[in-house]
């Protein structure tokens, strides 16, 4: 990859004017994984397997992104994932499996592959809609330690943006903090298994059998958010982080 936006391309309606430009990164080579035989300063120790790479991770995908992804493709993630009004999450069972395998399994265990990873093409099948945690993962940086620290800050910024916008759009569609709590209960490892269906149904309410339509609606609502609304969602701390990111881009 020769040049990278600070955010997934599908976030452009909200972030293109806030974080203009891109940052050149050539050391992290997705098609010929640099972590198969890692050298120099790397984000993770490795090594990774070339047909797995850093895609042995199940990311949170916010609702407004799911609205731009083919329904069939989304549904293919449901053997290990659960759809909730705020987005797609790994199931508690999958989270437990990740914990059991430990950090050494990252880049090594095929059972942990992202549900959106195309093994046939050996790459992400939702590249433009991939979430921030994926868009900001650089195993190596042309800007050394400062570059890795920069991308960690971008990830923090995007995680906050995703979650706050996902929350805001479901409120616009008539949901409340109650539904947020139900979503958390549905995926929490501490929830008793017999309670999960209750939390799942309570979170969805009237939308239970119209999940894809709901996600399409969340994207429509999200696209109507103004710059002022986005600033309010980000809040003072993340607006300050935004300035820090822009300053790094100016100096890089």
Q: What is this entry, summarized?
A:
This protein has 252 residues and is mainly α. It is 46% helix and 7% strand.
Would you spell out the secondary-structure blueprint of this structure?
Elements: E1 4-5, H1 12-15, E2 22-23, E3 61-62, H2 63-66, H3 71-75, E4 81-84, E5 87-90, H4 92-101, E6 117-118, E7 123-124, H5 132-135, H6 144-172, H7 177-187, H8 193-204, H9 211-223, H10 227-251
Antiparallel strand pairs: 1-2, 3-5, 4-5, 6-7
Helix pairs in contact: 6-9, 6-10, 7-8
Straight-line N-to-C gap: 17 Å
Number of domains: 1
Strand order of the largest sheet: 3-5-4
- Count of individual beta strands: 7
The sequence of SSEs as H and E is: EHEEHHEEHEEHHHHHH
- Strand-residue fraction? 5-15%
What is the rounded Rg? Answer: 18 Å
Q: Can you give the helix content as a percent range? A: 40-55%
Average pLDDT figure: 95
Flag low-confidence runs.
Answer: none
Overall spatial form? globular
How large is the count of helical segments? Answer: 10
Largest sheet: 3 strands, antiparallel
| Class based on secondary structure composition and strand pairing | mainly alpha
